[in-house]
Amino acid sequence: KAEGGRGRWARYDPDRAAREATSTALATALPSALGRDEFVVEYQPIVSFGTGEVRAVEALVRWQHPTLGLLAPDQFIGLAEETGLIVRLGQWVLERACVEAGKWHTEFPQARMTVSVNLSARQVSDPEIVDQVAGALEASGLPPDLLQLELTESAVMATGGEPVRALRKLANTGVRLAIDDFGTGYSNLAYLRQLPIHTLKLAGPFVDGMRSHDPAAVVAERIVDALVRLAHALGLSVTAESVETPEQVERLTALGCDSGQGRHFGTPAAPSAITELLRATG
Ligand code: C2E
Ligand code: CA
Ligand code: CA
Q1: Model-wide pTM > 0.90
Q2: Cβ of 268 below 6 Å from ligand 1
Q3: Which pLDDT tens digit goes with each residue over 217-242?
Q4: Which residue, judged by its Cα, is nearest atom 25 of ligand 1?
Q5: Ligand 1 within 6 A of 120 CB?
Q6: What is the CA(184)–ligand 3 centre distance, in A?
Q7: Does 181 contact ligand 1 (Cβ within 6 A)?
Q8: Ligand 1: which residue has its CA nearest to atom 21?
Q9: Which ligand is nearest to the CA of 116?
Q10: Are the beta carbons of 199 and 179 closer than 8 angstroms?
Q11: Ligand 1 atom closest to residue 93's alpha carbon, by position in its atom list
Q12: Where is the EAL domain (predicted)?
């Protein structure tokens, strides 16, 4: 289409036309992709700043598309959310991740490796989520405290009128809960205090801001400092996302941040890479 939004006319843009063709193709293929077994889960190390050890991994879904190649979640998660497929896809990721982590736990029990799984708002507001989590744990043999569930602030709010009660039921299965992308959404601090959560994941942009030596970096660092203090005052641990440089590790460690993930430590990888890592360090 050559028509721009809101009554304006845009010049024909071949890149945009290609993007639209791709998104139409994805929308058509997505509903049956699960049945065709086209999704894969990669795992990104989360490293403890105190010990330098990998204590956890985050499960991140990818779509191995037959012609378009390996697609990042940004290209299909939104679509899966709109169509409701995210509920089945999310459950599949949860089960897959628990099976993988169950194997790591069997082979390297002393590592006590946690797997962290993203839950979308639609999954969190589905009353069956508690049974699904319990079922995934039972089927895999993974101890509940080795599963962490990541919810964004908006996913917490999507639990309807009573997020505290909904999350309490989830927490009662023994799993850990983390607030993902903390600081980017609507944070109700009074609420936060009541939620049965264990960890705050500090959104990438704050960590990105700590990279340079310009005045903006000072502000970013003050924000991170304040968020770490807030988290610790509430008895929560803090994981920094998008850690890309040794300087960031140094600064984050100095501010008391507990753990981090990002390119500096390792990009998301196949489960076999995590097994190798455990073999080398365990
Ligand atoms: P997220 O939960 O914030 O995941 C972290 C994202 O940061 C991942 O992108 C990861 O690959 C990327 N990342 C890792 N290291 C670095 C780094 O050093 N710098 C920067 N700038 N980024 C880094 P990815 O894998 O493309 O996932 C994007 C988002 O898709 C995730 O963001 C999450 O919101 C969503 N997602 C992924 N898997 C699932 C899933 O199974 N279920 C649901 N509901 N959402 C998922
Ligand atoms: Ca996440
Ligand atoms: Ca995140």
Answers
A1: yes
A2: yes
A3: 888 899 999 999 999 999 999 999 99
A4: 60
A5: yes
A6: 10
A7: yes
A8: 242
A9: 2
A10: yes
A11: 41
A12: 23-282
Looking at ligand 1, which residue's alpha carbon is closest to its atom 27? 73
3-state secondary structure labels for all residues of the chain: CCECCCCCECCCCHHHHHHHHHHHHHHHHHHHHCCCCCEEEEEEEEEECCCCCEEEEEEEEEEEECCCEEECHHHCHHHHHHHCCHHHHHHHHHHHHHHHHHHHHHHCHHHCCEEEEECCHHHHCCCCHHHHHHHHHHHHCCCHHHEEEEEEHHHHHCCCCCHHHHHHHHHCCCCEEEEEEECCCCCCHHHHHHCCCCEEEECHHHHHCCCCCCHHHHHHHHHHHHHHHHHHHCCCEEEECCCCCHHHHHHHHHCCCCEECCCCCCCCECHHHHHHHHHHHC
| CB of residue 78 inside a 6 A radius of ligand 1 | no
Tokens of 150: 């990541």
Rounded to a whole number, what is the largest CA-CA distance in the chain?
A: 62
Q: What is the pLDDT of residues 29-75, one digit of tens each?
A: 999 999 999 999 999 999 999 999 999 999 999 999 999 999 999 99
For ligand 3, the distance from its centroid to the CA atom of residue 209, given in whole angstroms, is 16
What are the C-alpha distances in Å from 227 to residues 187, 233, 238, 245?
12, 10, 9, 20
Within 10 Å of residue 3's Cβ, how many Cβ atoms? 8
Length of the chain: 282
- pLDDT band of residue 7 (cuts 50, 70, 90) is low
Quick check: CB of 152 below 6 Å from ligand 1?
A: no
Please tell me the distance from the alpha carbon of residue 83 to that of residue 245, in angstroms, as a whole number: 38
Q: Report the separation in Å between the CA atom of 51 and the middle of ligand 1, taken as the mean of its atom positions.
A: 24
- The CA 94 to ligand 2 mean position distance, Å, reads 13
